[in-house]
Design goal:
The complex is a heterotrimer of chains A (274), B (381) and C (304). Chain B has 381 residues and is an alpha+beta fold. In chain B, 22% of the residues lie in helices and 32% in strands. Chain B has a six-stranded mixed β-sheet, sandwiched between helices. A five-stranded antiparallel β-sheet of chain B has the order 13-12-11-14-20, with no helix packed on it. In chain B, strands 15-19-16-17-18 form a five-stranded antiparallel β-sheet, with no helix packed on it. The longest helix of chain B is centred in the middle third of the chain and has 18 residues, at 186-203. The relative contact order of chain B is 0.12. In chain C, 74% of the residues lie in helices and 3% in strands. The chains are: A mainly alpha (274), B alpha+beta (381), C mainly alpha (304). The structure holds adenosine-5'-triphosphate (ATP) and magnesium ion.
């Protein structure tokens, strides 16, 4: 690692150990997903048969499909709401309940999942009893729950980007005759697009990853991928899960790489601007 | 950038603002932020076609005044009139004024041409008209070759011309420039001052600019307002401001100046005599000031108005003996710091037009400094 | 602007009304009101009904009667299981936050001191694991920590130990899992803070004769306190309510309140007690959450 002279050796060692600790388990997992043996911990030669079995597992596949749709819908909605919330935090002059608003926006960042899950379920049950809606829990209720907590993360990402945005760009657009809405769509939105994309990806992975909240608010007939994985993992190790895990890790790495390149490009562009 | 000028460089003073009454008027304009006055009861008249500069130290309220003109801030009290009509309540995007930002605020995701077209599109102009006007404007600022570039691919001076063009293309009734040269380095600055002044002149737009660089204000503006603490201290042409400052702040803010504090001894129609503990001889000014004997005043003399010599001059007033304390050699001229017998330091500028350096004064020479009766200004505040 | 419009604009946050209302309503409806409902149900009694609790109010002989019972809270006090679970959760959360801090600080510091593209790369490497499935990462450790898992196999084949070390289903495994999962959450805000640290301050301190230790203790650490607090709260608060890690790695041996809540709700179907457990947890977390907030807002204002 070619580190700058300013880094103390102690920090360098910590970095190395830290990265080893973070990545070794995942590497092991990926290696063992190609293990031919039925027994997870004994190496029985190279094979990709678990990948085949994984794709033939219908329960798993339908849960995956559900999770992907859910993640897509949640990410999209939470980017829209998160964008609005970030605008409120950064562009709207102080109004009386702005502190309350700020609190509501950031609290889901740290709120334990079990509390969010339980409280939303009780809300849905209460609503169903009072208004008859939602009659059934499933995709819609999980979506609402996911949007609620993903939105907090998106808001933080976007509001820090908006705060960095040179305000005079927006003022210049207004000065040239654009309305507020026009300024937002022609100037603000295109410039913060990379942050919007990485916020969307973040929300997507958060939703794809959630087990606890979904377990509370899902109905009996709706199952997400983490719920299937959890019930299988609870019973012990299974080679099929290894294969799934390896695929997830690769997919997420690819997405993260993409997000990284996007931010890098954005940063470079901003650098050149300055 | 060196492909500049086929434009002839005329001095900015060749602009001919109409002497007719106010085009834009500020009437008792104040602005307070959280109870603190940033702009304090400003009355100002801007004439059609002139380049008006607001000059003042950092934090004196220049930008705030400009932002009230542009519509980003509303005055707390007072009114702004355009050709006699009040602009109160009219937001920035509906005012026929355009502002060039200090950071230029060029839209980073648009090309040069798109940046120029933005303002016209907001007016709902047709595609044809937008295209011709963009081409025209690019021509005028000599950036036609760059129309496809993104802002970050341009040099500082080019960015500035595009920012200017983006405002001018809207044919604003008033152009506002906030520290137009602030983002440029010193050398480029001097060139762009002339270039921008030329472009503005060829367009004939009325313009208010903000700067804290006095040289910039003097080079570019027809008239200058000196601001301090949210108030306007003096308004005048560059030479009025320089030669006839109306207060000590202005005198000291613009250029360097020697100031003697004293009291009026006698004040007649055609002269005034002042006694100062900092001067052995009487300070004599060749015009009356309608003051009263005993009134405390200051006398300001610019360094270049003072003569320096080894021999005592004939005049009985405005002359002091001293010793050369320090010399700053600046090539074409030198600044001599002379310590008077009273202990006061006086700086004197002298051209280095002797043929050889040996003729010049040196350290610790006993010298006389003197000036004539029309060279000094009496400041009563 | 007409007088009427100006009046409205004064009362509401300007033309931004359409911007403010959707997220505001959403959060009120799906974040704030649910807490009120949790509290309400924690005051009910468990019942064999659909939903499984007694009504908050009913009409007894045409008179509106509220049924409020603190029985659930008393129950939490009397049964030592709950008390122990809270204490153990707070203890585990505190200890793992401390471990994360000790491990994460040098890492954040190292990244903050790195220059150029390497810095972004290192940062991404820290974030990347937290983007992969959380379950998958816990699952990876299950494979490593088991009695016949990889760590034990390696140790035994090297002859370091004769018998497998028992690591799964211990608190040790829980700590590993928590640190592994939450470390990036501590590093990120800390990094964001440390990267803003002006190197000239350290140079000035050196110039004034401070050694590396006193530079760290008297300059770097105090200035990065905001990041330390944010990072610690981002770990501590969610860990208190953690369910998956103690469930999968801690076995029956580890007691944590998240697990208890899950059990009350899914296994015992005692919604009122689960609600009471959640309410008490929330009250316990109120101070850390406020702390987190204060910091978030300070950071926001500093940037404005
Ligand atoms: N939005 C604002 N909120 C509060 N105070 C402000 C705001 N804008 C300006 N001020 C205050 O008003 C005063 C004048 O500010 P202004 O920006 O007009 O100064 P300036 O003359 O442009 O200075 P500079 O040359 O540094 O740009 C300052 O004291 C400043 O702190
Ligand atoms: Mg300013």
């Amino acid at each position: 690692m070619s580190a700058a002279p300013g880094i103390p050796r102690f920090s360098k060692i910590c970095l190395l150990i830290g990265f080893f600790f973070l990545y070794a388990p995942m590497v092991v997992l990926i290696v063992y997903s190609f293990n031919d043996s039925d027994r997870v911990n004994i190496w029985g030669g190279f094979s990709n048969r678990w990948y085949g079995e994984l794709f033939r597992d219908e329960a798993m596949m339908s849960a995956l499909w559900m999770s992907l749709r859910l993640a897509f819908a949640s990410a999209t909605a939470s980017v829209v709401l998160g964008m609005l919330a970030a605008l409120v935090l950064t562009r709207v002059r102080n109004f009386r309940s702005k502190t309350l608003f700020g609190g509501m926006v950031t609290a889901p960042l740290v709120m334990p999942d079990v509390i969010i899950g339980l409280s939303l379920l009780l809300l849905f049950v209460g609503m169903a009893n009072t208004f008859g809606w939602p009659a059934q829990r499933g995709f819609l209720t999980i979506w609402i729950a996911h949007v609620t907590f993903c939105m907090a993360f998106v808001t933080v990402v976007l509001s820090s980007r908006l705060r960095e945005l040179d305000k005079s760009l927006e003022e210049a657009a207004m000065d040239l005759g654009a309305s507020r809405l026009g300024t937002f769509f022609y100037i603000t939105l295109p410039i913060i697009a990379p942050a919007l994309a990485s916020g969307w990806l973040l929300a997507f992975t958060l939703s794809l990853d959630d087990l606890v909240i979904a377990s509370f608010v899902a109905g009996p007939s709706s199952t997400t991928l983490p719920m299937v994985v959890f019930s299988s993992v609870r019973l012990g190790l299974s080679p099929q899960i290894n294969a799934l895990a390896a695929l997830l890790i690769l997919a997420v790495s690819a997405a993260a790489m993409l997000a990284y390149l996007l931010t890098l490009r954005d940063e470079r562009r901003r650098h050149e601007q300055a | 950038m060196t492909e500049t000028t086929a434009i002839t460089l005329k001095g900015p003073t060749s602009r001919a603002p109409s002497e007719a009454a106010g085009y834009i008027e500020l009437v008792g304009v104040s602005k307070s932020f959280d109870g603190i006055l940033a702009v304090n009861n400003v009355d100002l008249t801007i004439r059609k076609g002139e380049l008006f500069a607001l000059l003042g130290a950092s934090g004196c309220g220049k930008s705030t005044l400009l932002r009230m003109l542009s519509g980003f801030e509303q005055p707390t009290t007072g009114d702004i009139l355009l050709e006699g009509r009040s602009l109160t309540g009219l937001p920035a995007n509906q005012r026929p004024f355009n502002m060039m930002f200090q950071s230029y605020a060029l839209f980073p995701h648009m090309t040069v041409a798109q940046n120029l077209a933005f303002g016209l599109k907001q007016e709902g102009k047709g595609k044809r008209e937008v295209e011709t006007r963009v081409a025209e404007m690019l021509e005028r600022v000599q950036m036609t070759a760059y129309y496809k570039r993104k802002p970050h691919q341009l040099s500082g001076g080019q960015q500035q011309r595009i920012a200017l063009a983006r405002c001018l293309i809207k044919r604003p009734k008033l152009l506002l420039l906030d520290e137009p040269m602030g983002a440029l380095d010193k050398k480029l600055r001097t060139r762009m001052q002339l270039e921008v002044a030329n472009i503005l002149e060829s367009v004939g737009v009325t313009c208010v600019m903000v700067t804290h660089d006095q040289e910039e204000a003097m080079t570019m503006a027809n008239r200058i307002a000196i601001m301090d603490g949210g108030r306007i201290l003096q308004v005048g042409t560059p030479d009025e401001i320089y030669e006839q400052p109306n207060c000590r702040y202005t005198a000291e803010f613009i250029g360097s100046v020697n100031v003697f504090d004293g009291v009026i001894v006698d004040d007649e129609v055609n002269y005034v005599n002042i006694a100062s503990p900092q001067a052995r001889n009487t300070l004599h000014i060749g015009h009356g000031i309608s003051g009263f004997a005993g009134q405390p005043v200051s006398v300001a003399v610019r360094p270049e108005k003072i003569q320096i010599s080894l021999e005592r001059p004939a005049q009985p007033f405005n002359c002091e003996a001293g010793e050369v304390d320090d010399i700053a050699y600046l090539g074409s001229h030198s600044v001599y710091h002379v310590k008077l017998e009273s202990g006061m330091d006086v700086s004197v500028t002298a051209m280095n037009d002797e043929r050889w350096a040996g003729e010049r004064l040196t350290w610790h020479d006993k010298v006389w400094v003197y000036w004539d009766e029309h060279s000094a200004v009496v400041l009563t505040s | 602007m007409s007088p009427a419009r100006r009046k409205i604009a004064w009362r509401l946050p300007g033309q931004y009304l359409l911007v403010v209302i959707p997220p505001y309503i959403w959060l009120l409806l799906f974040f704030v009101i649910p807490f009120a409902i949790v509290f309400k149900i924690s005051l009910a009694e468990s019942a064999i009904a659909q939903p499984p609790y007694t009504a908050f109010y009913e009409y007894v002989e045409d008179v509106l009667t509220f049924r409020v019972s603190f029985a659930n809270y008393l129950f939490l006090l009397t049964d030592s299981l709950y008390f122990d679970a809270y204490v153990s959760s707070l203890r585990i959360a505190a200890i793992s936050t401390l471990i994360c801090l000790v491990v994460g600080y040098p890492i954040a510091y190292g990244i903050a001191r790195t220059q150029g593209p390497l810095q972004s790369l290192l940062l991404m490497l820290v974030i990347l694991p937290s983007w992969t499935s959380f379950l998958v990462r816990i699952y990876a450790w299950m494979g490593l920590l088991r009695n016949n898992g990889i760590i034990n196999s390696v140790l035994m084949s090297l002859g370091v130990v004769d018998e497998p070390i028992r690591m799964m289903n211990t608190e040790f495994a829980v700590y590993i899992g928590i640190v592994y999962t939450y470390l990036p959450f501590l590093i990120l805000p800390l990094y964001a803070n440390l990267v803003k640290l002006d190197n000239r301050l350290l140079e000035a301190a050196t110039d004034l004769g401070a050694g590396p230790v006193s530079r760290f203790l008297r300059i770097t650490l105090p200035l990065s306190m905001g990041g330390v607090i944010a990072g610690c709260m981002l770990v501590f608060i969610p860990v208190v309510g953690e369910f998956v890690i103690p469930e999968l790695l801690g076995g029956s041996e580890t007691l944590m309140i998240g697990k208890v809540l899950w059990g009350e709700f899914f296994n015992n179907r005692d919604w009122p007690v689960a609600s009471a457990v959640a309410t008490v947890m929330l009250v316990l977390l109120l101070i850390p959450i406020t702390l987190f907030h204060r910091y978030q807002f300070r950071e926001m204002e500093a940037n404005d």
